[in-house]
Design goal:
This protein has 105 residues and is mostly helical. A two-stranded antiparallel sheet has the order 1-2.
């Protein structure tokens, strides 16, 4: 028995040749299915945009929170007579003797 030559039509072919149209062997989705897929693609793009906006807003909030923490520490240092001892991140002394819990984001 001899092996079939590539492209002779007998035997399985592992890959398509350049420019070959696979639609003849693969069933194509109907128009309603295409519309549904297009709708999902649009939804995915909108969700990606929303996630990007939310991520940017979160990063800006984190930067603002870090700036506020830094300012608060400086204020505490000045109020404490220039002491270099600053409370650990997460627990900051509050004027009046209380303790404020500042959670990290």
């Amino acid at each position: 028995a001899t092996a079939a030559a590539p492209g002779s039509g007998s035997g399985p072919r592992p890959c398509r040749e350049a420019g070959e149209d696979s639609r003849s062997s693969t069933p194509q989705p109907s128009t309603p299915q295409l519309r549904e897929l297009d709708g999902y693609a649009e939804l995915v793009e909108r969700l990606k945009d929303e996630v990007s906006r939310e991520r940017s807003a979160r990063e800006a909030s984190c930067q603002s929170l870090n700036a506020l923490r830094s300012s608060y520490r400086i204020l505490l240092q000045r109020a404490g007579g220039g002491s270099t001892a600053v409370p650990a991140a997460g627990k900051l002394a509050v004027p009046g003797g209380g303790v404020s819990l500042v959670s990290a984001i």
